[in-house]
Amino acid sequence: MSRVLDLIYRIPTAIAWIRACQLSSDQEHQRALQVIDDLPAREREKLGWRLLRLQQHFFLKDDQTVAREAPVLVAEIQAATGLTPDAKRYLGAYLKWLLSYDERGAPLRPDGSFVVENARFEEVDLSKVPSGWKEAFPLRSHPNWPANK
Question: Which of 24, 67, 103, 128 could pair with 86 as two cysteines, CB 3.0-4.6 Å apart?
């Protein structure tokens, strides 16, 4: 019976994920944030949702939130037991890209102190990263990204 209840619980969360990703894709970042914020707290605190939320703040140019939350996420990614080493490198590289995006203007940390360890793109083997992470957080700057070949 608990499997059925678990499935019933996951359906609205999956629909919310699809909705938030679609809104983000349509550049409706404020609305995507609202979808995320409307989730129960236990869902909102999961790594994927927090990364998606941070991504929306990035696109909204909310540098204070990004600068405050990104280092916390980097530490959590590195400590996560449910992620493969390749997924950790990939997500670290994604956050590094997010924080050092050239077209953003001023750096988030003027002293340049923010560093993401093990985030060099060429060290990330895309074939070993789960497709869900690549779809939600595309690292198109990676030299082996399919469109770059």
Answer: 128
